[in-house]
Specification:
By secondary structure, this protein is of the alpha/beta class. It is built from 9 helices and 11 strands. A 5-stranded parallel sheet has the order 2-1-6-5-7. A two-stranded antiparallel sheet has the order 3-4. It has a two-stranded antiparallel sheet with strand order 8-9. Bound molecules: adenine.
């Protein structure tokens, strides 16, 4: 996969030289280029922003440096693929970036990230860019960052670790939070007793069926407690009886394959 990132703070992306993503770059699994938006300006002050039409606080990023930068990236395409590269524009006004999005984007040949700053990028850039790219404004969540760079660090790590060969043991991608629409079960290591706290006995039992069941039920418990919103999309149609019972204990009934919280269930969530 090839990734291009355009930013006025290229140094912000330096962590992508470290750890698994840095190693993937060294190993040639990921080709990642960071471009300084200011090199695409033409004035003496290398201006990238201006005041907003219609008034209001803050500054807006000018369109022309963005068009120059994105045209340069689009012209330098790898391979012979006819598919347009995906242009991801991090923004709190974008669609939500999820694990499903990470999987979808990990299939692409080329991703380009446009890091906005200030109040954002002139909207006409997104319209113009649609000729060369599939444009996807993306939000990490419902909060506001100062710019797109931190969001790009998160998205590139989430996508990059899904590329074949990046994570040493691919099994670890299967049993993690959000891989099956639920939160991950709790994990423990040695010693089995630590500061008067024991590891749950089932994990020492050697009974793999019981361990798998305990872990699933812990996923249900955690998800019901911390992220009950995720349970609305959970497919409960084929659950074994013991799993239905676990959900019943948490206050959920299975109706037509979906989980429904009983109105009389305690706990105050939902
Ligand atoms: N830029 C500013 N806030 C953001 C957010 N929540 N997600 C992605 N990019 C952003």
């Amino acid at each position: 996969m090839r990734i291009d990132v355009v930013s006025i703070f290229p140094e912000y992306l330096a962590p992508l030289e470290l750890s698994l993503i840095g190693k993937a770059r060294q190993d040639g699994l990921l080709q990642l280029n960071v471009h300084d938006l200011r090199t695409f300006t033409t004035d003496r002050h290398r201006t990238v922003d201006d005041t907003p039409y219609g008034g209001g606080a803050g500054m807006v990023m000018k369109p022309e440096p963005w068009a120059q930068a994105l045209a340069a990236v689009a012209a330098d395409r790898p391979g012979t693929s006819a598919a347009k590269p995906v242009l991801i524009v991090p923004s709190p006004a974008g669609e939500r970036f999820t694990q499903a999005t990470a999987h979808e984007l990990a299939e692409e040949e080329q991703l380009v990230f446009a890091c906005g700053r200030y109040e954002g990028i002139d909207e006409r850039v997104m319209e113009w860019a649609a000729e060369h790219f599939t444009v996807r404004p993306m939000s990490l969540g419902d909060y506001v960052l100062n710019g797109g760079e931190v969001a790009v660090l998160a998205m590139v790590e989430a996508i990059g670790r899904l590329l074949p060969g990046v994570v040493g043991n691919p099994d670890s991608l299967v049993e993690e939070s959000h891989s099956d629409g639920l939160l991950e079960y709790p994990v423990y290591t040695k010693p089995s007793s630590w500061r008067d706290r024991d590891v749950p006995a089932v994990l020492l039992s050697g009974n793999h069926g019981k361990i798998a069941q305990w872990r699933r039920h812990e996923q249900y418990r955690r998800t019901a407690e911390r992220r009950p919103d995720l349970l609305a999309g959970f497919d409960a149609g084929a659950l074994p009886r013991a799993d239905r019972a676990a959900f019943a204990d948490l206050g959920y009934d299975v109706v037509d394959g979906r989980l429904h919280r009983r109105p009389d269930a305690g706990g105050g969530q939902n």
